[in-house]
Amino acid sequence: MADASRTWIDDELASCQLLDQRLNRRLHGLLGQLADNMGESIPFACQDWANTKAAYRFFANSRVGEGDILGGHVEATRRRVAATRGTILVIQDTTEFSFERERPDRVGWTYKGNGSNERQGGVRPYTACGLLMHSSLVVTTDGLPLGLGAVKFWTRKKFKGTAALKRHINPTRVPIDGKESVRWLDNMRRTAELFGDPARCVYIGDRENDIYEFFCLARDLGTHFLVRTCVDRLAGDGTTTVARLMDEVAVGGRHRIEVRDAGGRTETAEVELTYATLHVRPPIGKEKRYPALDLTILYAREPDQPENRPRIDWKIATDLPVTDTASAVEKLRWYAMRWRVEEFHKIMKSGCKVEAARLRTAERLVKLIAVLCIVGWRVFWLRMMNRVVPDAEPGVALTGIETAVLDRVVPDRGSNQPRIRDLASYVRKIARLGGWLARAGDPPPGDRVLWRGMTRLTDIVLGATLTLDDVGN
User: Fold this and answer.
1) Which residues contact 126 (CB under 8 A, 6 or more apart)?
2) Which of 252, 288, 257, 285 minimizes the C-alpha distance to 271?
3) How many domains does the chain have?
4) Do 150 and 210 belong together in one domain?
5) Which helix (H) or strand (E) holds 123?
6) Are residues 272 and 411 in the same domain?
7) Could you please report the per-residue DSSP string of 269-329?
8) 152 with 179: CB under 8 angstroms?
9) Pairing mode, strands 253-260 and 145-154
10) pLDDT of residue 160
């Protein structure tokens, strides 16, 4: 989006200071080109050999790192957090990007497995070439993504040998600094320092985030967490476990939620809520290094097994108080926001098409992914603004020429209706450019129709700008 790119990119990269002003200008240009041509290759986005070669040189430049590229966006996230009030949810999760390369060693690997070998009639061991990315997505309790607070990239080269180490000693005795799990703690430290008000933040993670060191660090930093658990830890005086104590707790309330069955149909399920504050003890072998903690354990379970879908069985640990059904439902709603980071990762893979990138080394790929993180967040933010703040002014996301083009190209429904000029109406017009039918029963537009519509809007605005220039001359 020619004019809009300059506006939002300038805001997003205002605090980004690379070592050379030429590098700053190149980053601004690259972000605009990749945003205007979302999901396309670097040559397609750059359009000519000079810009394409400049892009390749930028990603190969040893003086530029992924932290430098994301620095402006992270600072913009901090400003958006400071401008909001109330609780902020910091959602962490890891995703894998897989690539096909003739020299996979130049990128690294994510896992090793066995595949079929039809010619020899057996199995063939293989190494999956790729990168891992651990994101900390910051959202409001209404689900509006404010940006990324921290991002960590790595491959399994760094932790080579730790799996073999765990076969010889108890995994709980392996120091956290020597495990991949340390990423959860690193991102918490970085975001807590970034926002400067850790008491406002609630860190949300799935069962992979069930790490006792993480709980202790949250206490030390003065922040909070909401984590789905998978470990039945010792509790009380050390002679029983969390599961045994929770079996003795009476049901504290019930809550109805909407779920989808295997066929995609929506139905209502009722879960029983059980909650209690327990004295949870550290893993065996770590009693001297970590203290016991008083945590709230919240269970949300369906009493019976449904026929057409898995049974809902959530076990959540938090340091926040849960004293009644209302506060239990609030914590469940906050944990349900964890799916936002999954949606962000989907945009990165399906919209930005990260895995189609042809850069040959991990260092260059990581820098490209860092730029695309900003592009992906922008699309996600626009979609959620339509749902969370639909009556916002269109100027927060679009320029005057873009709104004028949308009014001209995508007419309002119903000639007798007064023209609505809020952000939601223009987001729907962008989605209609991307193939959204806007029928009465259709759900709100999703990411796919939005990024397709934004690409079409870019081309139309470019044509309108060239026409105005010709008329002016």
Assistant:
1) 112, 113, 114, 115
2) 257
3) 2
4) yes
5) strand 122-140
6) no
7) EEEEEEEEEEEEPPPTT-TTTS--EEEEEEEEE-SS--SSSPPPEEEEEESS---SHHHHH
8) no
9) unpaired
10) 55
CA distances 370 to 90, 148, 152, Å, are 19, 11, 10
Residue 74 located in a structural domain: no
Q: What is the pLDDT of residue 115?
A: 63
| Spans in the chain with pLDDT lower than 70 | 1-6, 113-126, 158-173, 414-420, 468-473
Burial class (CB in 10 A: 0-12, 13-18, 19+), 352: buried
Nearest to 146 by CA among 316, 385, 325, 395: 385
- Burial status of residue 98 (CB atoms within 10 A of its CB: 0-12, 13-18, 19 or more): middle
pLDDT of residue 218: 98
CA–CA separation, 218 and 293 (whole Å): 11
Residue 443 gets which letter from DSSP? P
C-alpha 321: how far from its chain's center?
26
Torsion of CA 68, 134, 329, 81, to 10 degrees: 0
- CA dihedral (286, 290, 294, 295) positive or negative: negative
338 and 395 housed in the same domain: no
Mean pLDDT of the chain: 89
For the record, the structure tokens of 296 come out as: 């709230």
Tell me the CB-side half-sphere exposure of residue 233, using CA atoms within 13 A. Answer: 28
**468: domain CATH number?**
1.10.740.10
Please work out, in degrees rounded to the nearest 5, the angle formed at the alpha carbon of residue 332 by the alpha carbons of 330 and 338. 115
What pLDDT is recorded for position 67? 95
Task: Tell me if the pTM is above 0.70.
Answer: yes
Task: For residue 446, give its domain range.
Answer: 389-472
How far from chain centre, in Å, is Cα 415?
40
84 in helix, strand or coil?
Answer: coil
Residue 312 and residue 422 in one domain: no
CA distance 457 to 453: 6
Last residue of a domain, one of 349, 379, 403: 349
Q: Which residues contact 257 (CB under 8 A, 6 or more apart)?
A: 268, 269, 271, 312, 332
